[in-house]
Amino acid sequence: MNALTLPAASANAPEVDLLLFALLGGTVLVLALVFGLMLRYVAHYRYTNTKDRGRPEEKTWRFEIAWTAATLLLFFGLFLWGADLYVRQFQPPPNALRISVVGKQWMWKAEHPGGQREINALHVPVGRAVELLMTSEDVIHDFAIPAFRIKHDVLPGRYESLWFTATEPGAYHLFCTQFCGTDHSAMGGEVVVLTQPDYERWLADNAASVGVVAQGRALFTRYGCSGCHQAEGRGQAAAVDRTKNYSSVRAPPLDGVYGHPVPLNDGRVVVADDKYVRDSILMPAQDIVASYDNRMPSFSGVVSEADLFRLIAYIKSLSGSEGS
Ligand code: HEC
Ligand SMILES: [Cu+2]
User: Fold this and answer.
1) Structural domains for the chain
2) Residue whose C-alpha is closest to residue 271's, from 212, 316, 237, 234
3) Which of 2, 32, 269, 288 is most buried by a 10 A CB count?
4) Cα 26 off chain centre by
5) Nearest C-alpha to atom 17 of ligand 1 is from which residue?
């Protein structure tokens, strides 16, 4: 498999290829110029040749400045071209279908908004933006789909995201491209791009009993979050966890938190995104919500990565955006 025979099956892939070939072409031209001149002068001034080797020409500033400026402009042009593509490649559109991906030695686990789970496989609809929200349970992995021209490191303790719009139904390889231990080479699978009706059918065939948001809601009670955080406003009676008595703790309501600015007690204001909610659960002492006390216990080592995604989807749904 190489860049010439590899299918280009995502919306961005042709653009990435164009940039790659432009860079390659530019490099070959420079190489040809340097080697061409070198060979020409080798022949021209070879030992037996009686060419005039007199005074070298005077230095011309006009020429020096012209070629320096031209190269500078050329490199800035390449930089802007690459930067523009890079920024777009890593900025998922807001309406993207969100699939969570957890890497671990040595497999990829994915979960769809409807609760469908798969291992070392990813079923996605054609023509729709798909965002992968990714993290690792152990070491650094790297999620790569060559046919889509995307790859990104997947790190423990952090969220990374990738997005793509598949353009051709079919099956493509997915790989871990970061050496991650004994069975690294087996850590891969298949991305299956389906037409919209086929995708609906696949979702129905693999339907889970509960979607991600509903799982998150159940976990919210199971982990005792609801004992402190009453979900106010939207009529959800917070099931009281009787095993823990948190009735004296005043905790902020989580409705409308996700996606909105949160004032902290050190004066900063941060937007509650996935990372913020994740850190709030694992490292509650790090960012304290203004006018509240640091009374929330850390759930680090208690809540798994997969459950964190579900809790976040639930908290996101409290802000009116269903976790898709
Ligand atoms: C002992 C009571 C308690 C429990 C249990 C608890 N929290 Fe909290 N939580 C708090 C308090 C108090 C704060 C505000 C202080 C802070 O930011 O640490 C808070 C803050 C938060 C925030 C930030 C809210 C905002 O407005 O920015 C989130 C998100 C959160 N908790 C989620 C959870 C989740 C999910 C669970 C269950 C896994 C949970 N909490 C369990 C007391 C609790
Ligand atoms: Cu790996």
Assistant:
1) 1-42+90-209 (2.60.40.420), 215-317 (1.10.760.10)
2) 316
3) 288
4) 30
5) 288
C-alpha span between 132 and 154 (Å, rounded): 11
> pLDDT tens digit string along 11-65?
999 999 999 999 999 999 999 999 999 999 898 888 887 777 777 777 788 888 9
Residue nearest to atom 9 of ligand 1 (CA): 296
Closest CA to 175 of 146, 138, 133: 146
Tokens standing for residue 190:
């298949």
**Residue 189 CA: which ligand is closest?**
2
pTM here is: 0.77
Token digits of residue 299: 């759930």
The tokens describing 157, both together, are 């303790």
Quote the distance between the C-alpha of residue 36 and its chain's center. Answer: 44
Ligand number nearest CA of 141 is 2
* Encoded tokens for 307: 């459950």
